[in-house]
Amino acid sequence: xxxxxxxxxxxxxxxxxxxxxxxxxxxxxxxxxxxxxxxxxxxxxxxxxxxxxxxxxxxxxxxxxxxxxxxxxxxxxxxxxxxxxxxxxxxxxxxxxxxxxxxxxxxxxxxxxxxxxxxxxxxxxxxxxxxxxxxxxxxxxxxxxxxxxxxxxxxxxxxxxxxxxxxxxxxxxxxxxxxxxxxxxxxxxxxxxxxxxxxxxxxxxxxxxxxxxxxxxxxxxxxxxxxxxxxxxxxxxxxxxxxxxxxxxxxxxxxxxxxxxxxxxxxxxxxxxxxxxxxxxxxxxxxxxxxxxxxxxxxxxxxxxxxxxxxxxxxxxxxxxxxxxxxxxxxxxxxxxxxxxxxxxxxxxxxxxxxxxxxxxxxxxxxxxxxxxxxxxxxxxxxxxxxxxxxxxxxxxxxxxxxxxxxxxxxxxxxxxxxxxxxxxxxx
Length: 428
Known about the structure:
The chain is mainly α and about 425 residues long. It is built from 20 helices and no strands. It has helices spanning about 1-15, 20-35, 40-50, 55-70, 75-85, 90-105, 110-125, 130-145, 155-160, 165-195, 210-230, 240-255, 260-295, 300-305, 315-330, 335-350, 355-370, 375-385, 390-415, 415-425. α1 packs antiparallel against α2 (about 20-35) and α5 crosses α11 (about 210-230). The chain starts with a helix and ends with a helix. The relative contact order is 0.16.
């Protein structure tokens, strides 16, 4: 009965428009109080949920992403991508996907990248004749790859919750699937834009010089090499890598490009603090919900029931795919991991699935949910910036969802797509 109240209360609060973090905390607190488990367990779990050293990575990478966006790196990446792809029909749509992938190696949040890329690309795309709904859908889908391409907040949270999958291994494991997902999105994006003649008015615009634009973007692209190279050679931990990214970004913005002033840095710190506070508040209050589930023994019967159904492992994986894509449309990756990992990890261990590979699969599922209507977090951001409605994006994003789903199936069928790099770098 209390279990029904826990989940029922959570979904009722969501339907009433209560923020996800508050809904998780209130539902968990109500269940703890109803079961007479001791109300002091609430503040204890709130603190324990975020008192983890690896979580320091989150505010640092969020700050780094804000710095690279405001310092002009995003514009330089757009110019470089334009030099590679050219101008004309469908080009801006493809450029938006490429830029989102490039930015994905700097920040760690899908919604943050969606906001950054939409802020840079959306005005140009709309001016060139791309529909607002198409623009919002493409950028939201492209930004979803950011939770796979390291550094990733979702992969960091997974590594914290699953000690057998360290952050370095998860970062390496996400590179190839994240890149494949981005490349796969280019196909339907180009086809839809080209078929409908979007951007045809730009065909006569000159292409920026390739070498010159590469030189301008080189230092921004070097950030990814710096972060991943430092992790590969053991020069710093993921948390220290986040600090290195911040220092490097400030160096570019203040010394090299001279685009950042003290007032800009203050505003970026405030913005990064606000975004990080939202993420960590979700982590803290979701921990209360998760503790209630664990203490009330809600998870064990469900896990045992799934295992004893005697189903083929691929059939179970199919069920998890559908469940997580649906849940991903309503919840962010952090909440999904904290709530469901206690259920999912025993299932993975029963079928002897590699937990690093399993983490990438879960993250890919959540990425699809981030731009699947009706409650897709990335789409909410891009629709707000472009002025489109979520309903109007459906004809466009359905093609992108199908493409990302095919990438998911490919990674499931060939686990080495996610495991080869961690093994090569010695992280496994």
